[in-house]
Amino acid sequence: MSQDTLLLVGRAVGDAPEVFETHRRRLADRTAFDTVEVATYDAEPVRELRDQFADHPADRVHAVPMCLAHTRDTVDAVPRALAHLPGEVHYCDPVGRNPAVTEVLAERAVNRVSPGADASLVLPAFGSGSTPHQRRAAEYHAERLRERGDYGQVVTCYLLQNPTVECVRYEVTEPRSVAVPLFIASTPATEQRIPDALELSRGGIEYADPLGTHPRVTDAVHAEAAKGRVLADAGDPGAFDPDVETAHPVATDGEGR
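Above: the chain sequence. Below: its structure as tokens.
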């Protein structure tokens, strides 16, 4: 009988290991996978994970990158690390464009600033607005939150390029503002870089927690894993053959291969 594993893959930064483990425990109680596991790395996915993956017993692995949107790691290094798994691998999308995540962002915002036409909601994201994965995820949630009409203004900004986090204070037009970081776990970026760039000490902008262990984030991970399993059962062409030396899973971000 074949064994299916759901594998949550992410960088071990900040409280990410604890956050990932919380989601793993919940998923182990509710998914149809035989096992649910976490694989973390510090800086080099291939070097740090290849030996662990080489002896993995599962016949089929569904890997979900534990980030809001694809990064350089999850587009390149993580797939190359997954290629060391001996079984069939299906690479799922991150949770970045899932309606459940929008609900968490809205809840995080409300906990800091009450909704109203005189309030702005800021979504600081990793990366830059010029890279497609981060931009798509940030704008997906920004548009959904605009449609809700809870805030007079919803803006996105990024750590690396325009529109930058440093500039967003001068872009908001409402007297009250709240920033909700588009990150799953607390990291040096959410704890220091973004607050410093927003100049929180000046006042005027409240700062919310990242997505963290919210149950709806678990729902989003479950949805991506379930989608990946359905595609796999239907003969998903995204699976790769571990016997082909150059084969590795491909990040699609829902856009196709």
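The mean pLDDT is 90.
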